Amino acid sequence: MKSESNLSRLLGYAGGHRYLTYASWVLSAGSALIALVPFWYIWKIIGEVLRVAPDFEKAQGLVQNGWSAVAFAVLSVLVYIAALMCSHLAAFRIATNLRIEMMHHIVKLPLGFTERFGSGKLRKIVNESSAATETYLAHQLPDKAAALATPVGLLALLLVFDWRMGLLSLVPVALGFLIMMAMTGARMQKKMQEYQNALEDMSNEAVEYVRGIPVVKTFGQTVFSFRKFKDSIDRYGRWVIAYTKELRAPMLLYTAAINSVFAFLIAAGIWFTQSGVTNELILNLMFYIIITPVISVTLTRIMFQSENAMIVDDALRRIDTVLTARPLAEPTAAGHPAGAAVELRNVSYSYDGEKNAVEDISLRIEAGQTAAFVGPSGGGKSTLAALIARFFDPQSGSVAIGGVDVREIKKRELMDTVSFVFQNSRLIKASILENVRLGRPDATRQEVLRALEAAQCADILAKFPRGVDTVIGTGGVYLSGGEQQRIAIARAILKNAPVLILDEATAFADPDNETRVQKALSHLSEGKTVLLIAHRLSTVVSADRIFVLKEGRIVESGTCRELCERDGLFSKMWRDYQTSVQWKVEKEA
Predict the structure, then answer these.
(1) C-beta neighbour count of 557 within 10 angstroms
(2) What is the CA radius of gyration of the chain?
(3) What is the C-alpha separation between 418 and 401, in angstroms, rounded?
(4) Mean pLDDT across the chain
(5) What is the pLDDT of residue 82?
(6) Which of 58, 56, 62, 70 is nearest to 44 (CA)?
(7) Of 259, 258, 288, 250, the residue nearest 175 (C-alpha)
């Protein structure tokens, strides 16, 4: 019932192409039955040879029967090709519509969903899970129709010529089927889910590892510094080896069972010839020896179809983890921010529903002020910024911009109100002009050029013959981390939102790029409410207010001078920072 439900759901994405799917099943089943007809002509050829032996010149129907066998074999192939054409047209349409629906749904989800879910895991679901449905519909369902039709035709052939040999030929089939059921039951389905989980984890960690390569190079680390990535590979390896060893014995028994049909036929031949050898007995024995390999092929095909059905079932469950994720609720009566002041009241948020990433946070940042969030890693700085930008909603409390709860501001207006520059800003494969214009799609070319100039990007444009029309990622055109950051800042300048969030925006910039990025950020921050997340304490000295977070709570707040005068967490961090700076200068000297 579940597989029918899955199939019905997949066909719902086919539109008018669903009838091509049905046609592919009929054609594939027809092809399988036609493929058995040549065996009947082979039986006639063998019978005639035995009848006229040794005077083979008396044989009259060898050529005609031979060409008839070839004709039906070719016809079977042509019908099967037609079945695959129908199934592929429908499968491609279904996979395409499935990906479109997922992408349409993903863009409606909160921006924090991708980070929490894992971009590698999400990419694998969109690409590979939908591809699994395409393989299932284009190949496996037509093959399943053929695999179901083949035993019907085989049963007729096996029982018509010699029912005793036919029944003996079915004994290995029964043994193989029982072993196959033991391998492809509910336990196998659980194993398939574990296998996909292992692949998914490895894909996710691989993406995160590639993203972290700049850190590896910056600090001279090796792959072993990315313990999670290596552990995911080790877990996958251990699982695959254990699973392979576990299936070794049943697979050996299955292979032996389905290929043991010749032993049964030879034993039957010896038994039946005790009362004498006849041409008919030799004819039937030879015919069964020729046709019985089709049984093992059919059984193996059915076994892999059971496995593939479980793969599709698992793929659809993973697709559902994306499609069932809820977008943030859109307000019924939209509010409009009156200014750019930011206020949080008793805000708490947890990623896993257990430990709060931020807990009972209350603060207010006046319009035009610069506020900095500092503190140890894992203190909740980025989570707090994400809540202000409404990447997700708090479990309790409220976040307001301009006196209006962000949950009551329309998504488009909120995005026009808040702009952000992350430490690992990303550009799309498009021209520099189009990348910057993402900040304000209706901007003119001159407005984009002015934003690039304000973001200190003149040297970037001067490097390329096509200037602002240079397509990034094509023809060997790539930008450094600092250059990408300046393009992202130009995008934010063009957007000109009143609230600006800077998440360690100079983290991976080299000294030359850092100077340019700082100038660009100074221009970008003019007249805006700025929320600055920083690990380099030198960047927060001039902030109007600094909030020190530890374990999800604000433990201190004030100006840099006020916090340094206290004997608290910030003053300790400041002393440690000054010591590290002095040590670095002495080492360089």
Answers:
(1) 15
(2) 35
(3) 9
(4) 79
(5) 95
(6) 62
(7) 258
